[in-house]
Amino acid sequence: MADHKLDVTIVTPDGSVYDKKDATMIVLKTTGGDIGVMANHVPVVAGLKIDAVKVKFDDSEDEIAVNGGFVEFSNNVATIVADSAETPDDIDIERAQDAKDRAEQHIAHAKEVSDKDELARAEVALKRAINRLKLSEN
């Protein structure tokens, strides 16, 4: 591997979702803010927010919907361990829209009955569904 390239792997409890070599940069939304990581970056371990991970190459870019987890980067290898993750080709748009609709219903119900736990879970489900839908539109 050349000094100016990265290997990027995304794994979930269900297995490997993404594994590519020769990336020039990855862009992530971490719990501490947005970061971009290029080759020879200092080692990093960071928690991830629900958002798209962008993997940039010389002439293209991949986006992967990542729903939480963390990234570990060292020696030009980025490993993302996510709660769940999907590439745009793997996103079932109808299922994601149904999940969004259900989450919105749960949010309304949680507000009606003042259930903070249900509200928090529903808000996370809504963020995940919106992340998947947003990525599938690109």
From TrEMBL:
Signal peptide location: none
First-listed, main subcellular location of the protein, grouped into a coarse class = membrane
Does this entry carry the keyword Amino-acid biosynthesis? no
What are the residue boundaries of the ATP synthase F1 complex delta/epsilon subunit N-terminal domain, all occurrences included?
6-85
List cellular component terms (GO).
Answer: plasma membrane; proton-transporting ATP synthase complex
The entry lists its GO molecular-function terms as: ATP binding; proton-transporting ATP synthase activity, rotational mechanism
Residue limits of the ATP synthase epsilon subunit C-terminal domain?
Answer: 89-136
Q: Where in the cell is it found?
A: Cell membrane
Annotated keywords: ATP synthesis, Cell membrane, CF(1), Hydrogen ion transport, Ion transport, Membrane, Transport
Q: Which InterPro entries match?
A: ATP_F1_dsu/esu_C_sf, ATP_synth_F1_dsu/esu, ATP_synth_F1_dsu/esu_N, ATP_synth_F1_esu_C, ATPsynth_dsu/esu_N
Q: Is Plastid tagged as a keyword?
A: no
Q: What does this protein do?
A: Produces ATP from ADP in the presence of a proton gradient across the membrane.
Which HAMAP family does the UniProt record give? ATP_synth_epsil_bac
Q: Which family does it belong to?
A: Belongs to the ATPase epsilon chain family.
- Report the protein name in the record: ATP synthase epsilon chain
